[in-house]
Write a structure and sequence with these properties.
Distance between the termini: 15 Å
Shape: globular
Structural class: mainly alpha
Number of strands: 2
Order of helices and strands: HHEEHHHHHH
């Protein structure tokens, strides 16, 4: 909400930041109420809210710019991470060197799965949101917010976990269903923030 209030550039910049950070912590599987989800799920869940706010205030073009920027940022992360892990550290910096290697040690498959799933389904989210808005007009904001997010998050989750974990022995189907349910709860909650944002006038308006 702060980024939204600060203006267009800030909320657009928030999208790639959330995507890259979600991938930093994504490989860690944690338990929420006894169910397994990735640690990056809360950050990833914030992405549809950001793009929906951009569509609502600035239009689909700016939302697509945010998604493309996030995709390119994640691509840069993948490109940079490989050479970094191959560079030898100096003896006196072994501890920090090992920590950095672990941080960037996610498989290429995992790191590619996230931006691919993200860019496909966030563009779908923007398209669905725009179409529903054309039908409903400015009213029924909660309908377009929830319909676009529910469909896009389900598609993105199955695409990501399928690309990243099929054949690895990871219970990706179970994690996918739990993650989708978590996303849908977040989608219902973030409707409140979407309505609150309608009352906020960004500084660049």
């Amino acid at each position: 909400m702060v980024a939204y209030w600060l203006g267009r550039l800030y909320i657009i910049a928030l999208v790639p930041a959330c995507l890259v950070l979600s991938n930093f912590v994504g490989p860690k599987i944690v338990s929420v109420f006894g169910f397994p989800i990735t640690a990056g799920t809360p950050l990833f869940a914030a992405l549809p809210l950001a793009t929906d706010l951009i569509v609502e205030k600035y239009g689909k073009k700016d939302a697509r710019i945010a998604v493309l920027t996030a995709f390119l940022a994640m691509g840069l992360f993948v490109l940079v991470s490989r050479p970094i892990t191959q560079m030898p550290w100096l003896p006196f910096a072994q501890t920090s060197g090992e920590a950095v290697d672990i941080l960037f040690s996610s498989s290429v498959r995992l790191m590619l799965a996230s931006p691919i799933a993200y860019v496909i389904w966030q563009y779908a989210d923007i398209w669905i949101y725009g179409k529903v808005k054309e039908i409903t007009g400015d009213s029924n904001l909660w309908i377009r917010n929830n319909i676009s997010t529910v469909i896009a998050q389900a598609g993105s989750t199955f695409t990501f976990f399928g690309l990243a974990f099929v054949g690895t022995g990871t219970p990706w189907v179970e994690i996918s269903f739990v993650t989708i349910c978590f996303y849908w709860v977040i989608a219902a909650i973030d409707t409140v923030f979407v309505y609150a944002a309608k009352r906020i006038e960004p500084r660049d308006s």
